[in-house]
Amino acid sequence: MHTPYCRRPGHAIRVVAPRRTTRLTIMDPNASPAPSPTATPGSGGDVRRLGTVAAAVALLLVAALVALSALTASETSSPRRQAGAADRDGGSPRPATIVEPPNADPSVSTTPAPGGDRASPFASLEGRARSVVVSGSFQGLSTVTLRSGSLEAVGDAVDGSGRAVGHATVRVGEGDVAVAGEGLSLGVSFARLTPDGTVVVDSDLMPDSSPAGDLSISSSGATLTLSGPKIEIERVDTETEEFVTETVPGPVTVRSPAFVTYSGSEVVWLDPPERMKATVGWVSWAGGGSIEFQGHRFEHEFLGARGDGRIELVRAAGAVEITGNVEARQIWTDGHARIQTDAHVDVKSTPGEITAGGSGWFTWAPTNGGDYDMAMHRIVPGNAEGHWVELALDTLPRMWGGEDRPPVGGDTTGLRYDDGGFFDAGTQPISSMLRPGKGDERDISVHVPSETAPGQYTVVLLVEGNFETVRVEIPVTVVAPTF
Description:
By secondary structure, this protein is mostly beta strands. Helices cover about 5% and strands about 50% of the residues.
């Protein structure tokens, strides 16, 4: 069975000057529409034609070889494969259909918002929070101070005495370390902000199971200044052509190009301003407020949204005030996705013949064919043979502003599960959330009970979430043991 991506421990900061911060979400405005919903075996993808100009063919062949090499390496390290149409985050979504949270939670309020534009892709956010989690970039900074870590930069350096040391590796550590520059932007994978001004950057805050991007600092200027309790430089001696290391006075200025990495047990940003503007890809908060989108107002203690946008965070009177707008790809209340999408499951291969008492597998790809994020919260047997399937499902994204809450979703009641052992990882969960146009292709195990009579069977699974329930049928032929 395919093993999902495992996050690597530790943190890395890359500082690039003078390039400005790049969006964290990669968008494809030319993406083709997703295929029509289906759950039948053998669904395929698109085949793109090559041009007829010889030069273009040659260039495409070279690019294809490079891409194939990268894809092979990626699948070797991470068996998860994306299927279906391209990510359509760059396009304009269709008008939203609102879905109610499971069990009719009375604490969730969804009311009409007078004057709301049913065609607008933007959601308006307003809240007062005790904790906020964002993924994006804080902008317009002059300094970034990090607690008890170490910085390492490579570039043309000048130490605190004004001595030019040439191209060198600069290491700053043994206490709080800082980066200063003109027009700094701090990009974070996921960071939690509380009213006391503490900002903790931690991939464990991630609301979904996709890998966290590196932390990044960019500057509109051509230099960055590094400071800390101890600064060392490593350079090549021009006379001996050997590496030498020396302690130098700070702060040290590193001229472009400058690349910086950070290491530490956790990343804590110590000097965030009281008022911050940020571009975001994710945001969630705990405390209260509202999100207005296409004529609907969502109100709850725990709110969140995914989509590119701009927000402002202001620390005032023991809370963090939130205002802003995002191009919504999903809205969350109390951990539940509220905008409906279109979903289908492609069965890529079937088990064929399985001996009674034996095992086989099929390959499937749950795929988001809509314009909004797909959130699977339940996969269960649809018939008696459905219990033969071994499958686990991630819980839904943790959209609670960084606070601990009971997980939502991940329900696979009635399916097989293997805890694993010393040499066996056991049943690994599949991703519960897929972005527009994305799929998650996996091999899924089927275990036929030994008492099963030979014959033709159909395994049925029901996939539930913020979409119409998908019924998946997998044909299985059971044969008698040969001994």
